[in-house]
């Protein structure tokens, strides 16, 4: 039996818009519009989509925060919205944008409270806390009030808090949003290790395709409340034919460069933007340009998720 | 989960969270002692106003000074107890607005207990102490023919009063699930109600007294039971015999608590189906 099961799940919000002084116009927003998927135990899945696609709403239904308007949700055999507190013992949740830690108290207090609230056996708690403190580099931070932590420190603190009670599944809603490169790397490494060594099922929503590339074999794309894609990341690139961008700074203004395997998208003074397939390597391209043109500087931009999805739409429209 | 189990886990969660906050304030004992004292003094000024008034007039609405002190002490203690346990729930509107309510919903504890125990502050004991102080002082001086029943009515009155105020706070907080900026409206019922009850009912318009007797039953906090103790008639007609007023407060309190609990549940359910 699968660990997480969604069957034709819907969530409809009633939004009221002010029209004039007292008149209000009501209209329905289908935040999640008939989504079905299953996740077996121990899998690590990326859940991506643009802003307002329904990612957070799905997570909220999986954790029991929101009651679905229709369909069926089961996590570990439990209906989240009906047995929220029972399920809470078995899941861990990290919200990137808001903390589950106690804001004005030292970090360690949040952990001590979790110890008692989740009724974690003493030995288990010690072992888990020690492990998180070591791997997430928290030793120096335990006595610091949460409000004084930087975003990256707080995020690591939040991840530890979500794991002290040995949850079977961990939901992360934008866990790397706003983090610097070092913090991102640390968080990713920890999550990968957690998934392989403890076998924790992980579902993470993100804007950052690199999160997915480095962590998840399986990816689900959601837009307008519908599941657009469910499969391997490579497949997504193929379908979306997503492109990376090479930005080159030349010594002087030149006509658009002529390089095989890439096309110039934009020219602005001595700077040019070249698109090339995401599946191709940038190295031969760079060599080519460097040997033929007066190159000063360059950088590679990864495709963002919006671009991939926009491409998916465009292709479908052409096919249809 | 049954209602009993829910109550049990709620109380357990409240105790854990409150203990955490107490430990953190006790880290600064001197500062704690000062805020406790400040709290005591500030609420005491309330009472100084009444003291000053009685230095100019003989009675207030036919009540002498010790009788008004009795009313004052009873409502202040009851309100103080409710504020100590549930005063924080009025902040729920902010949590709904900024979305931090979600983080409470993923913990294995009832949301009401988590909200109530958040920032639990023992300094609020200052208000309770001050109310008790005035109440005991009034009980010593007040001219009453004490009977066993009258002696029993006093502590029951204070506890029931605390529950009634607490119920109003919770119902008011539940209302904020729909009207997120209603905290001030709710305060006018709780803080305002407390101020109202510090004075004898005879000085207010009869319609107001009827309102707080039959609509929002704040009169059961102290007016009705205290007037029974003092052997005084209630200024508006009651549909029941005045001797019953001694027994009604616990019943009214239980009913209020039940209604408030239902309001809270409806509010939380509305939040969980709209997500705000």
UniProtKB/TrEMBL annotation, chain A:
GO MF annotation terms: ATP binding; ATP hydrolysis activity
ABC transporter domain residues: 4-249
Membrane topology annotation: Peripheral membrane protein
InterPro entries xrefs: AAA+_ATPase, ABC_transporter-like_ATP-bd, ABC_transporter_ATP-binding, P-loop_NTPase
Keywords: Antibiotic resistance, ATP-binding, Nucleotide-binding, Transport
Swiss-Prot/TrEMBL GO biological process terms: response to antibiotic
Protein name per its UniProtKB record: ATP-binding cassette domain-containing protein
Lineage per the UniProt record: Bacteria, Bacillati, Actinomycetota, Actinomycetes, Kitasatosporales
From TrEMBL, chain B:
N-terminal signal peptide: none
Transmembrane domains' residue ranges: 36-57, 69-87, 132-149, 155-179, 208-226, 246-264
Stored Pfam families: ABC2_membrane_6
Taxonomic superkingdom: Bacteria
InterPro entries linked to this entry: ABC-2_transporter-like
Source taxonomy: Bacteria, Bacillati, Actinomycetota, Actinomycetes, Kitasatosporales
Keyword line: Membrane, Transmembrane, Transmembrane helix
PANTHER family recorded: INTEGRAL MEMBRANE TRANSPORT PROTEIN, SLR0610 PROTEIN-RELATED
Organism: Streptomyces mesophilus
Protein name stated in the entry: Transporter
